[in-house]
Specification:
With 155 residues, this protein is of the alpha+beta class. Helices cover 48% and strands 22% of the residues.
């Protein structure tokens, strides 16, 4: 069981967490209209304080990560009952080394771009549209939402 968790479930969780998520377009009350990311809770959006920055909300991110982990654990345990899964130690080590390098690169860029990390999201939002994104690829056409935003904002 421990082998399956460390060699398959955790890597699958981290990969799926980074690749597949939900996007939402909305407005942060008393701020601007932005794209929000996260499933089941919003854990990331662009920063309001400076361009090219991102805001991360740690409680929401932890809940999302635990949700992804539970889902991946159920999948791996179910598959392990049908077929015996055996991930070699070498493949597991390669994954963790690549993950560590990518994580350190992300941490460096996050510091360089002045990203913000908050314990909890401290602003209200109004969502206009949402969908699923893979690799962060989705339509970013804000013009189709401008009429809804103007109607909601009273302008």
């Amino acid at each position: 069981m421990k082998k399956i968790i460390f060699r398959l479930t955790l890597p699958l969780t981290l990969i799926s967490f980074g690749i597949i998520t939900k996007w939402s377009y909305g407005i942060a009350i008393d701020a601007k209209d932005v794209f929000f990311y996260g499933f089941p809770m919003i854990y990331k959006c662009e920063g309001f304080h400076t361009s090219l920055s991102t805001q991360y909300f740690l409680i929401e991110m932890t809940i999302n990560l635990l949700t992804y982990f539970a889902f991946c654990l159920i999948i791996t345990l179910t598959l392990n009952r049908i077929w015996k899964i055996n991930i070699s130690k070498r493949i597991s080590k390669i994954f963790w080394i690549v993950y560590a390098v990518l994580f350190l690169g992300f941490a460096y860029l996050s510091n360089d771009l002045d990203d913000r990390y908050s314990i909890k999201r401290d602003f209200e939002i109004k969502i206009f549209d949402s969908g699923i994104t893979i690799f962060g690829i989705h339509s970013t056409d804000r013009e189709k939402y401008q009429t809804e935003y103007k109607n909601w904002n009273g302008k």
